[in-house]
Give the backbone structure.
Amino acid sequence: MTKLTVSTSPHIHHEATTSRIMLDVLIALIPAFAAAIMIFGVRAAAVTCVCVASCVFFEWIFEKITKREKTIGDYSACITGVLLAFNLPVTIPIWQAVFGSAVAIILVKQLFGGLGKNFANPAITARVVMFLAFSATMTNWASPYAETSWWIYPIDSVAANLGAAGGAMDALTGATAGADAVTGATPLVLLGQGRFDALPSVWHMILGVRGGSLGETSNIALLIGGIYLMARRVISWHTPLTYIAVVTGLSGLLGAEPVYHMLAGGLFLGAFFMATDYVTAPQTNLGRIIFGAGAGLFTVLFRIYGNYPEGVSFAILLMNILTPYINRITETKPLGAVKS
Amino acid sequence: MGECEQYLDYYYVFTYNLHMNSDKMKKKIMGISPPYSKNTANNPAQTLPIPEQIEIPMKMHSGKPAIPIIEIGDTVKVGQLIGKMDGKICSPVHSSVSGTVKAINERDKVTGKRAISVVIVPDGLQTPYRAQEPVNVKTLSEFLSAVGDSGAVGLGGAGFPTAPKLDIKNPGELDYILINGAECEPYITADTRTMIDDTAHVVGGVELLLKFMKPRKKILICIEDNKPLAIEAMQKGFEGNDKVEIRVLPTKYPQGERKVLVYNTTGRIVPEGARLADVGVLVTNITTITVFDRYIKTGMPLVNKVVTVDGPIVAKPNNVLSPIGTPIRKLFDFCGGFSVPEPGKILMGGPMMGYALPDIDMPVVKVTNSVLAFAPENAPGGKSRRAETACIKCGRCVGVCPMSLMPSNIEAAYQVKSIEKLERYKVNLCVECGSCAYVCPARRPLVQAIRLSNDLLWQSRK
């Protein structure tokens, strides 16, 4: 007699699987990875590879020691590695990058039960830990120009010519466009110090030619990745759009520089890739809007009134902690439910 | 309990006022768009040759099994009563062939559970039991007893006997009867072909319902917009009848789920624990109404079913008019067999809510609207089981649930056996449409967790 499979319905499934979704996130991070190498040089690739390799290693070794099911095939450790690297300065000592990976995978993810069980985003938490532990190396910003002159100059001259021709590009290229204008310090640091003359142009900030963490600077590359994720329905627009809108709007309202608050920090990386992390963010669209708005509010407050120039990772971490409560207040009302 | 009922009344009055006179809907019912694979929509049913042996179960409906009234060695004819009603929630069983009773099995040969079935060896003559003559129906009670005698049950898959369903407490307050031709499950086209090929009996069934059930508003024929031929046939069939309206609905699974259908057509919400009739609505499958109309017009009860035979490994997918009791293997043989040596999974019903059969020789029953065959490698349990991971809390299940439940929360609550949480998440409202498990990238067995949760709740109340 034929041996037939007997299982419960449904018997067909949508093509999306956990590993396919994670792979999509990795694909979406490729433009920003390429931009990081172009802006900061091959050390950006080296740091990223170290973080990915150590994250995967720590996940594998932890699951081997604790005899848990092996989950390195779902690519989630790879994403943690890439996102952690993107949050580090390119000059970070390699051993510190490995330490950060251990914090992310072992402390934040595996000790809470592994994939789907952690309440905080591993990469963000590891970054915050490193930021507090290694304050000096975590703020040792490299100047992006050293290795990028071969491609940024032609782009600059085209932009400058456009500006000269039409005048409309003046605001974009700005008076400060040029090699000597960009220093190693991040624009938000310069903004905090009131050194407006040293700020990079908006045009450079869109491209990502400025000081900062190695993967956060190129807004255009991050936006391409974000659009890819939205087109693939991996993420919804609710969190990133609310987050970016609140940061821009609120900073403008408080008299800060809204364009710089939108483009100069880690907002795009945080909004598209970290605030949208399934595990640590709300499950309903209303919850996602609340999450984005809350993260935006805290980011602006931390940046303007806090001791540190950047606030994205603190804000997302804070919202991670609030997520269970957001989920609770945004529970859906079942159709026809009667209170008993 | 009294308090609960009181709340229910408040809620009912509230939603009734909210939706009674308004066409505006406040809430959009979610769902999914699986590949529809309606490969057989243009195939009128082919008549299956009479098989060498058939086996008719006494329980092909929800409620009590029918009681066999024949003995081994008896000769039976087509349409002859072989299983009589036992109580109100039951349905009579008729022979689908003429021939000789060979055996009366007491147990299901696969599960070993007690389940009576009658084995008949056909003589191939298909002699009818009665000459063709209409049944005389003048009053509501005569109509209801004729519906019962016809063997009609909910042919959408639930199998609830039609006569007790139509026998509502408050017939004067019935506003709408929805004739469900949505057929939202992938592959199945049996109802579609009924609408196209059996229009006369659909029209007859609707007219009987209008005459005896007297809905205050309308009878709505509900069809998804991916069935243009069926819509055309229905529009032609009901031309000029202002009590009947053809409602073309967007193609979205589970459009044909009764509470979803009621909401999407009338805007009414069926409160938890209430019946559809409590909000003035009845829903019945479109093929079901042809069953009692045929019986009342010709005297022939339910003995044949149009069955869609399809699936990725079926050589020539088709619709087959099959006697009830036919071994399912015969249907696949009739459709050219399989393109692979052995099937991996056989389904009765659609791929979203159908049952995986343990045995390919199980019989066609009243509620069989399709049999589907899948190859071993794309049979879930094989490939998709391996893709199972921990829940990543992506919220896709929450986004697609037509009842606005939170399946991921329910599964988590079930894992810790939290009665309090399961009650709060209203797991009892689940219609088991499977949309959540369909979209789940972690391939969590959500429907299974929900069924087990309901068992757990039921046991905890004992």
